[in-house]
């Protein structure tokens, strides 16, 4: 695999990230320990060094498995875990973004992973109650004490992340160098604000559900008459998304690749660096995903995928792109301005 810099750092991570929410069977699905190790070994043997887990995944089994699998060569791997989601029901201090839960959760993750330091710690999801300064000071202290190396954030509005990094940069605190969001050909709305914000702040993007829960592999593709009835029951399988999946499959057939490889490669070839988080419950699934690192899509194929999956940017983005608005902003001389950002 090739490697990317993790945001505004010198940390090198592989162009695919191994998602390990599937490691463990406590949630009634997923892979047992033996299968999980085979998936991990396949990823590592192909050059993958970036591993994603969380305190909540499979009731802690995911972190335990990852800790065992990396133990023989711990410093080779970049391990990212998360805090915020509950470790105990009906207890508000065992959940959330606040400092008490952050420190408690990190200490427990260190034990499950059996490591002295977590490479990347994500805030898992914004709770809208904890002051951002409290989160930043907590992250900064964890870095200062050697419990974590880098801070990152997931599933949070762009305005919160931009506010946080502005404060961190001004005060010399640890900033968020990674942002994890849902992104795929089916879910592109993060391109409105989150991705441009991350680009502006030089934040690394990792994308969860890059195959939309398997929808983009084509395994759920339905007949046209059935697809029209899906909108109320599944946003990932509605009629619009069925058309996207059909185009992915068509391109896959044209270039002798799998649908999953086409969907992943579309993301990997975007102008902004995005690292897909790929999971697997079977060895063949991770082998298929890794195949995306060994292929290229043509400009025509990328354009077709962009067109079939296009969406409305919404206000103010669509408004600001209107020619009439540009004319009154630039006095009709926009074409004479070089290096502008429109």
Q: What this model shows, in words?
A:
Strand 1 and strand 2 (12-14) form a beta hairpin. The protein is built from 13 helices and ten strands. The longest helix has 17 residues, at 239-255. By secondary structure, the protein is of the alpha/beta class. It has two domains: 3-311, Alpha-Beta Barrel (TIM Barrel); 315-342, no CATH class. The strands form two sheets. The protein has an eight-stranded parallel beta barrel, surrounded by five helices. The chain has a two-stranded antiparallel sheet with strand order 1-2. The two termini are 33 Å apart.
Task: Kindly list the characteristics that best describe this protein.
eight-stranded parallel beta barrel, alpha/beta, two-stranded antiparallel sheet, 2 domains, TIM Barrel
